[in-house]
Write a structure and sequence with these properties.
By secondary structure, the protein is α/β, with parallel strands linked by helices. 12% of the residues lie in helices and 13% in strands.
Amino acid sequence: MKLHDLKPNEGSKKPRKRVGRGIAAGQGKTAGRGTKGQGARAGGGTRLYHQGGNLPFFRRLPFLRGKGFTPLNRVRYNEVNLDQLGEFKSKTPINPETLGEARLLSDPRNPIVILGRGEVATALQVSVHRISKAAKAKIEAAGGSVEIIPSKVSK
């Protein structure tokens, strides 16, 4: 098969219907628009979502600002998993500064949470704003220590 052999499937392409070209053409006079009324006029028709006197569907829905409900005092954390801490040497202090230098924080202004995905082979000294129970257990089982530092934002 070559490019010049390609053609569309049978029946997928139809010629354009030329309306308003006389009675013999089959679509003359009113050109398929019916007689009189809003739909027969040039530029006629209703706007999108018009429901003919009913309260439109989107106005019947409860009022929401933007895209759903957003808690006003949500705290966004920098999530760091244990498998990301593998590059740190034993007894290295792990705090917001060292995590920032290692480029593990998406936004250094936000507090940090350590999560339990992965394993810890070395004893780490972790100082973060929050830590999961599983992560704390794994760090302490490896001989490390965990310190919770107070966050500037409330939980």
